[in-house]
Amino acid sequence: MKQSLTLIPTMREVPSDIEVKSYKMLLRAGFLKPSTYGVYSYLPLAKRLLTKIEKIVREEIEAVGAIEISLSSLQSHDIWEQSERIHHFKDELLTLTDRHKRKLLLATSHEEIVTMLVRDEIKSYKKLPLILYQIQMKYRDEKKSRKGLIRSREFYLNDTYSFHANEISLSDTYDRIVQAFTNILNRLRLNYLVVEADSGVKGEIQAQEFIIPSEYGDTVIVKSNQSNYMANVEVANIMPNNKEKTTLLKLLEKVATPEVTTIRDLCQYFNISPESCMKTLVYLIDDEFVVVLVRGDHQVNEYKLKKVLNATSMRLANEDEINDLLGCSPSSIGPIKLPINIKVFADYAIQSLTNSVTGANEEGYHYINVNPERDFAINTYADLRYIQEGEISPDGEGITQFIYGHEIGHVIKLGTFFSEKFNANFVDEHDVSNPILMGSYQLGISRLLAILAEKCQDDNGFVWPTYLSPYDIHLIPINRDDEVQWNLSNELYNILSSYHFDVLFDDRHESPGVKFTDADLIGLPVRVMIGKKATEGIVEVKIRSTGETFEWAKEELVDRLNEFFRTNSYN
Amino acid sequence: MKQSLTLIPTMREVPSDIEVKSYKMLLRAGFLKPSTYGVYSYLPLAKRLLTKIEKIVREEIEAVGAIEISLSSLQSHDIWEQSERIHHFKDELLTLTDRHKRKLLLATSHEEIVTMLVRDEIKSYKKLPLILYQIQMKYRDEKKSRKGLIRSREFYLNDTYSFHANEISLSDTYDRIVQAFTNILNRLRLNYLVVEADSGVKGEIQAQEFIIPSEYGDTVIVKSNQSNYMANVEVANIMPNNKEKTTLLKLLEKVATPEVTTIRDLCQYFNISPESCMKTLVYLIDDEFVVVLVRGDHQVNEYKLKKVLNATSMRLANEDEINDLLGCSPSSIGPIKLPINIKVFADYAIQSLTNSVTGANEEGYHYINVNPERDFAINTYADLRYIQEGEISPDGEGITQFIYGHEIGHVIKLGTFFSEKFNANFVDEHDVSNPILMGSYQLGISRLLAILAEKCQDDNGFVWPTYLSPYDIHLIPINRDDEVQWNLSNELYNILSSYHFDVLFDDRHESPGVKFTDADLIGLPVRVMIGKKATEGIVEVKIRSTGETFEWAKEELVDRLNEFFRTNSYN
């Protein structure tokens, strides 16, 4: 490809507010262009990279027996109401109304429609298992989307769905797709973790995430410093603490607490630590208000809360609702003298609190010497908080540590959640009708591009490995106006192309400095420079990854390059 | 591919309300699945067909020097206001609002965003020409979308955009892309017409459409029965008719016309023909009411009207607006005694009308003996109507005939329409800044699939040519329970696959009748059946297109098939 014919708008300076490492370099090297908020266009080099990534993904997913389809992105809002996923995604779904006033949405994944398809077409165990996949644009109105391709609102995803007559078959396919994802990440030379995860779906059997560790990642992984335990912080279990209460219970007392609005204020006011306080929150869960209690230094984990309550929809009550309900602002609420019928869910850590402090449900007042059970009733104790660093590991071995990373894949044994919602049943060997078992598997394609962009770079630009690089060779005449250099460059462009190298030929009228800076930014594995020694038929070759340079005669160039790519390509 | 592992839900009966030939067979043969109104999912066989079509399109478009990119589908509503295309597409655009209350839309083509991209990155003639293309899902909220893939609301399109420093360069690329489209349609063995067309954009230099003639098509093409003249009926010019008026002009007279609401009523009432009447219409054009006159037997051509008035937005005035403006209902309006300031645009055919009939702008009254110029003023005469069959051809040679077809491609020399809207300028050799010249080229990919589905079928199902077929060979054991047949089938599946044939292996537990009916529906070029003669190592081969059958020994099968595909594949 002649560089003058394509579009690689490299930049000397990127806007200073762009902090994401991958995004910054994708802009600098002319791979990507922002379109509208959280949405991007892929320029020629990024499109070539995407194609290479997609090819690897297709090969590995098809090896599992998955069949490619293309399900519609425009979907009826109704089917998302039927699956109740509308409540899970809420504002993250992009919805629209067509000319006939029908409500539509842009799919973020395709469980509903693929379940309906299989329900209509598969009636017997004889036609199971079935594995369908696609690689396609998806849509999600992310709250925080200023992250380039890591979290964009329009993104490429590989989504695979499997359908089974029994759990053995589901487990077998699940394992083989986990292996396929593993193969893909290995072929891309990416380190990864496979961790327990939340599925976002009620009653799933198992869910795991593939995480690429990165200091820039926004997914928090909990690991043990002594065992193999590893999980997304959303699902890391915390054991009940069965510490005996030995402290003497003091008398409950109401105290005026003017200007106390936060746990921190409260601690200062009473000169106590957050561990001694009780934090009270009110949630609206499936149209019912409930009170949730956690220790002052703990954070409510809504994933766990949702699961414990088997909830479909859930959100924090707002200030008005709390005022209506309890007659005070959120900073003065507490679990004592609650209106009847309001259920109280307490984290396990509340169990061992003695003589604690809570709001009094009266503006500007708190109770001290609060003791659970004695002073108020608790409906359920459960694991409702986020684990913290330095706690005992959920598996009991060692201490927890946090690792940050990018979530790149998500595999879920869905069980019968969707097939029950959509009546997707099959008849088994004994003529008995059963709901089809399902699995769902997602791998982020544009996110993979971002992660590779983060990993494959140095200060000067990208450093693409041979098996990913948009082109193989960057061919650069140093002085385009020098006839000998120009002719040799053209000759080599034709020769290398005829040997099936993908060559980017810098035929632009630019200074050598500009061309070299651009070549470093673009990051092709091999640069072939035709300079003064063209008269002797000698070219200079530079390896982007190592910085090594060689002077090779034009006659040996093809053999040398073949040797380089043979020893540096992937298996 | 083992048929049991993929999804080909053939149907014995399709719903009786499905009339479109291509759609019907795509459903019957299990290629397509309706998702929501006017939106479809592509099942495995359709996806394979699409991939083959896309490959041919990519090869031909890239041969012109076009570079693949992927522009965002989610776009800011603002930029479509800036280009004023919002007025052209109106209700056909699917618009939405995100969580931050920003107005977005789903692109139906990408002129705005690609112009902005090139504006930002191309500043000099040295970087021109540039040709960018994509193959991508587009969105259009079609008014009539019950046509399967011919007119779906979510559709694959190949859209290409070219950027130039001068008209010679634009014309050169335009011609080469026309040639690329021609090559694609030739390779797909589709007959086509290239006709003059409307561009939908003001001030374009040239626009043509590629039409696949079909009795099922909804595009009307006008051709001459004697010359090469051919055009979309939307743009077919009609010459002014300079017939001398020889009739004696009678006195204008107002007549009560109770119960006359249509031109037909009027003709009956006065016992005249529609050719003698004048039809009056009121349009709201760029916020101004104008009156348009055509002969009673003619239809206003809004494409021409828009162009004559250089209008951005245009629609028919509604009944209330007409009542407010003229004090009567639409059936009594006419051009006499109009409120001052209302401009009158008349079709050329009005010029030669004498003693005609029009509404009197008074409920239930018409004028007779109406003569233009004498009885009312006309601001502009222009070509404002649709040509009819049997008229003199626009090029003066022969008589017009109508042909119906599917529009498959659209090529437009846009000129500077978008570059002026978005300030996309370049500096030329003389350091002078000029707007970039642009071309836009579209080829419908999913519509191509529909057209091929319409053409490649007989009563029993699809008849795919070798170069398009989702698989090459349908391998069918007649009795799966016969060990000899089953073993030979498996042996041949392995052998044929190892020779790089794409084999669909019908390993299902179905009767021979079901398998043969499905095979006919699916329509692969060659069917290899393993039946009783398996014991002698003999198989039966049937050619789908001709119905010929052969008995071949398994040893000669590969050679015979190679010979068949060699002589029946495309160049």
UniProtKB/TrEMBL annotation, chains A, B:
Domain Aminoacyl-transfer RNA synthetases class-II family profile: 38-465
Keywords, comma-separated and alphabetical: Aminoacyl-tRNA synthetase, ATP-binding, Cytoplasm, Ligase, Nucleotide-binding, Protein biosynthesis
E.C. number(s) listed in UniProt: 6.1.1.15
CDD domains referenced in this protein's UniProt entry, alphabetically: ProRS-INS (cd04334), ProRS_anticodon_short (cd00861)
Catalytic activity reported: tRNA(Pro) + L-proline + ATP = L-prolyl-tRNA(Pro) + AMP + diphosphate
Domain of life: Bacteria
MF-aspect GO terms: aminoacyl-tRNA deacylase activity; ATP binding; catalytic activity, acting on a protein; proline-tRNA ligase activity; transferase activity
Main subcellular localisation: cytoplasm
GO cellular component: a single term: cytosol
One Pfam match: tRNA-synt_2b
InterPro entries listed in its UniProt record: aa-tRNA-synt_IIb, aa-tRNA-synth_II, aa-tRNA-synth_II/BPL/LPL, Anticodon-bd, Anticodon-bd_dom_sf, Pro-tRNA-ligase_IIa, Pro-tRNA-synth_IIa_bac-type, Pro-tRNA-Synthase_IIa_type1
Top-rank EC class of the record's enzyme: ligase
GO BP annotations listed: prolyl-tRNA aminoacylation
Compartments reported by the entry: Cytoplasm
Free-text function comment from the UniProt entry: Catalyzes the attachment of proline to tRNA(Pro) in a two-step reaction: proline is first activated by ATP to form Pro-AMP and then transferred to the acceptor end of tRNA(Pro). As ProRS can inadvertently accommodate and process non-cognate amino acids such as alanine and cysteine, to avoid such errors it has two additional distinct editing activities against alanine. One activity is designated as 'pretransfer' editing and involves the tRNA(Pro)-independent hydrolysis of activated Ala-AMP.
HAMAP family referenced in this protein's UniProt entry, alphabetically: Pro_tRNA_synth_type1
Assembly, per entry: Homodimer.
Entry text on domains: Consists of three domains: the N-terminal catalytic domain, the editing domain and the C-terminal anticodon-binding domain.
Entry's family note: Belongs to the class-II aminoacyl-tRNA synthetase family. ProS type 1 subfamily.
Protein's name in the database: Proline--tRNA ligase
Source organism phylogeny: Bacteria, Bacillati, Bacillota, Bacilli, Bacillales
Gene name of the record: proS
